[in-house]
Amino acid sequence: MIISTGLCGIVFAMFAGQPLILIGATGPMLVFEENLFQFCKKVDVDFLTWRIWIGLWILVIALMVVAAEGSALIHYFTRFTEEIFATLISIIFIYETYKSLYYVMKENPFEMEYCSNESSLTVIYEDEYDVEVTTSPTEKHIKEVYNGDDKSYGHDPFPNTTLFSIILTLGTFFVAYFLRGFKNSTFLGRSARRIIGDFSIAIAIFLMVLLDFAIKNIYTDKLTVSSHLKNERTMFIHPLGNEDQPITVAIIFAAAIPAFMVFILLYIEILLTGVVVNKKENKLKKGSGFHLDLLIMGALSFICGFLGLPWMCAATVRTVSHVGSVSTFTHSSAPGVKPKLENIKEQRVTGFMVSFLVGLSVFMKPILIEVPLAVVYGVFIYLGFCSLSSLQFISRLKILFMPSKYHPDVSYVRMVKTWRIHMFTIIQFLCLVGLWVVKMSPNVAIGFPFFLMLLVPVRLFLKRFVYSEREINALDSEEEEKEDGNSDEHF
């Protein structure tokens, strides 16, 4: 995963039409790969070998779509679809954090009394098992090696682990969130405020890791990093499989079906992320490169399949944070005047260095194993909330619970009746709930790209039969909104 993220990110940063987009693993893509792996087990097809042919078909489909200028169809994916998708990704970040903390709480519940003697953590099994036993509270699992399978057994709950994990998670989030807005405050000098704001996540991680290191008598889960790069297979996957699971012509052509679904996901994520980056509010001077970006992602999908690496795509939430970090805002000494976006530094260096450092982290085990997972959860919450704050959909959800005299002074409030604004918001919310149900349902999760595409006809139906042209343009346009206090909420 780390090697794939670094490799794809470096290539994309060097050659893409919009290098501000960050490449990485996303929830929908990982869910698809997991379902594809289960399908390959059922039909007795070698998973890695089939991925080569799927990757080749993705490249072929990408070439045909680019040749036909199919990227132009992205104009059907308007703000209506874009904000539902962005909200879903942000909610996934926040939900996964909650779920991870819930597992920590299940393994280390709050109790009135805990084992005060470390030796009480020792567990004795029957002689027929080969057991590795530890009495140290810094080792979480007691592993049993039996018939070649590694299994993890339970343990006595560690005192204060759950509480401290929650403190680290929320501490990382709040420190990063408030330091992010520090660059728009009145404290310190302009350069100092900007440095603190730009490195808010790094500062938050450093402070929370330092806190965890200082409190040695509380156990916390740490990042797991392999001590070496495993070499259990050849560097390149053989496209014809092996003697036990050969690849037939029928399997090669059948690979076009999952390839089409992966391509839909790539198409939506890379182009929608490009739309988010290139929207008018960001005041970019350089043009977009939708066709080139799509072609590069198709080529990278084939390369990843040939190397046996996970498929990557555009990481929307991380891209929004990246764009925010290279943004500059106006400064005014007038009281009550909030800063507005001035420009965005359009370059390839930051995207390249982010991906390079991600790949380099493979060799940073001594440092990474000291980072608690709870700190990573805090970063996830931060990314999720920062992305949500810039969405008009979230603003309209707030309007649902506001008296009309407190509604913001924006175009859609002036041009559309309040009850029709609420109806548009509720329809978006129901679509979001539907996508969430699909994503959480194992039997249909593999078809997530198709359900995401269904948002296009839903929006066209609203435009044709429910709202007038004037109303739908006000609610679903990309024009800049001059709303008080919203200047820094783009990122």
Description:
The chain is mainly alpha-helical. The chain contains 20 helices and seven strands. It has a three-stranded antiparallel β-sheet, with no helix packed on it. The protein has a two-stranded antiparallel sheet with strand order 1-5. A two-stranded antiparallel ribbon has the order 6-7. Strand 3 and strand 4 form a beta hairpin. Helix 4 runs antiparallel to helix 14, helix 9 packs across helix 10 and helix 11 packs across helix 14. 33% of the residues are buried. The C terminus is likely disordered.
Q: What is the strand content?
A: under 5%
- Work out the helicity level: 55-70%
Q: Whole-Å distance between the termini?
A: 27 Å
Radius of gyration: 25 Å
Order of helices and strands: HEHHHEEEHHHHHHEHEEHHHHHHHHH
Helix count equals 20
Q: Sheet with the most strands?
A: 3 strands, antiparallel
The class by helix and strand makeup works out as mainly alpha
Low-confidence segments, given as residue ranges, are: 116-154, 480-491
Mean pLDDT: 77
* Strand order within the widest beta sheet: 2-3-4
What is the approximate shape? Answer: globular
What is the number of beta strands? 7
